[in-house]
Amino acid sequence: MIAIETKQLKKSYGAVPVVKGIDLTVEQGEVFGFLGRNGAGKSTFINMLTGIIHPSSGSFSLLGVEGGDDSVKKDIGVMPDYANLYGSLTALGHLKFFSALSGRPASKAECMKVLEKVGLEMHANKKAVKFSFGMKKKLGIAQAIIHDPELIFLDEPTSGLDAEAVLHIQKLIRDLQKSGKTVFMTSHNLDEVEKLCTRIAIMKEGEIVKIGTMDELRAFYRSSITVKLKHSPIPISEQAKLREWLESAGTSLEMNDSCVTITVDDEQKIAEMVRAFQQCRVDVYRVHVEEPSLEDIFLEQ
Amino acid sequence: MYEIGKREFVSLFKSFKSIMIIAILLATSYYSAKFASFIVTELTDVEDIDIHYFGLLGLIVLFGQLFIMGLSHDSINRELHERTMRFLVTRTSRVSILLGKFFGILMFWFVCLLTSFLLISIFAHKLDLYIFSQTMSLLTFQIALTIFVSVLIPKPSFTMFLGIVVGILVPIMGFWLTLTENVWVSWIKYITPFYYLDQDGYTFLVTFLFSGLLLFAAGLIFNRRDC
């Protein structure tokens, strides 16, 4: 079943287009990562889907319900970017209020369970005005899942959190996926997206420039596979021949007595390289292949 | 809607505000009766009873808008400004938010007014439901106007200033329009609640229609607004 479907979704502020007609489909059960630099239009896109702002044109549906139909709101959870909590309410008070507002009032035990999931159980009765930035962020996530929604939007869920809290939230996102929920998240933490997301979209200047699974993105960018070979000393008589072969096989060649680093555009070249070394009576001890990370792919955009 | 209304009601009621408002309503009622008896010694029994309630109605007519604006001018735009509205609009419809806020404030004033009327009835020996209904109709209009202003103007600091201006000008203009014979402006009295309050019978019920129109207009604006 399709969790999110958008057709030519656009948002402009005056004459300035912020989101330029996005077509996107997210299947139920996916953890979908949305990447892009600041101002790329990620939050605007999420805000349109969640009803915070209105699209200028285009259409979308969430869980099969047409955009603008409020009946779907009870099935979605949202942690918006830049949202304040009610200073006078406690963490528990927030969860009770928001769950009731979603039409699924949570008991105190249920609220405590969710607070435990985000690591706030010790601060259940503390007013939000006394919360640190990280605690507010955790409570923001807790309120997004308190009513057990099917589709959860998390706008930079781990930014500003300490390492322990990040692991906590990452585990929570994995648990949500295991229980069949769909998570649509944005993040600046590329490692996190790489670890958690089943599919990724890279957004640039209001458009999706690349979309796919991590493997698909890697395959697309495999034009830059960096290979490091550790080898036995190259006989002097073979050095020129081997260098000539390597220079024709790839780019960014670095050679020393026991190691060669080279960037090739095809996996086949790795096997050919090992054979070339063997033909030159050089033993290859170790081959290290550095595949493009999400960071490399992201920076290339 | 119920949850938003409950939260609005509780946040207004749990502070000192409610006690202060009931005290002001009571004091005005008591002293207006006492002062009226002092300057007009020959009041009939009926007039003597009604003067308590008229004092209260007069207070709401003159200062009700100012009180309501003072307490609730930012009921919508504060949430927009601080972006707590984002949590609300992602959970429920905008109409529910608007009506929840409206009924929360209305319930607060209903309880304050009812308490005052019940307390006044102790020394007036009568509970005047007609004046109570008139006062509530006016309060309903004033609350709807406050919600409308709070939706129309996104800055709470500006609505605070505007609240004072509107709170003072609305009753003055209302009375002037009701009494003036200037044909160019006197027609405006038909779109103010004061004219209908001045009429006998149940014409004051028209005020509820105005409240509905104001809320409808507020809803149209709020539905188009980005949060």
In short:
The complex is a heterodimer of chains A (301) and B (227). Chain A is 35% helix and 30% strand. Chain A is α/β, with parallel strands linked by helices and 301 residues long.
Describe this structure in words.
The complex is a heterodimer of chains A (301) and B (227). Chain A is an alpha/beta fold and 301 residues long. Chain A has 2 domains: 2-217, 3-Layer(aba) Sandwich (Rossmann fold), CATH 3.40.50; 221-300, 2-Layer Sandwich (Alpha-Beta Plaits), CATH 3.30.70.980. Chain A is built from 10 helices and 14 strands. In chain A, the strands form 3 sheets. A 6-stranded mixed beta sheet of chain A has the order 6-7-8-3-9-10, sandwiched between helices. In chain A, strands 2-1-4-5 form a 4-stranded antiparallel beta sheet, with helices on one face. The longest helix of chain A has 16 residues, at 163-178. The radius of gyration of chain A is 25 Å and the shape is elongated. The two termini of chain A are 31 Å apart. By secondary structure, chain B is an all-alpha fold. Chain B has one domain. In chain B, 80% of the residues lie in helices and 0% in strands. Chain B contains 11 helices and no strands. Chain B starts with a helix and ends with a helix. The mean pLDDT of chain B is 85. The A-B interface holds A 47, 50-54, 70, 73-74, 76, 78, 80, 82-86, 88, 97-98, 100-102, 143 and B 3-4, 7, 11, 82-84, 86-93, 224, 226-227.
What is the topological layout?
The complex is a heterodimer of chains A (301) and B (227).
Chain A: E1 2-13, E2 16-27, E3 31-36, H1 42-49, E4 57-62, E5 65-66, E6 76-79, H2 91-101, H3 108-118, H4 133-145, E7 151-155, H5 163-178, E8 182-186, H6 190-196, E9 199-204, E10 207-212, H7 214-220, E11 225-231, H8 236-249, E12 251-255, E13 259-264, H9 268-279, E14 284-290, H10 294-300
Parallel strand pairs in A: 3-8, 3-9, 6-7, 7-8
Antiparallel strand pairs in A: 1-2, 1-4, 4-5, 9-10, 11-13, 11-14, 12-13
Chain B: H1 2-13, H2 17-39, H3 45-72, H4 77-81, H5 85-89, H6 94-124, H7 129-152, H8 156-179, H9 183-186, H10 193-198, H11 206-224
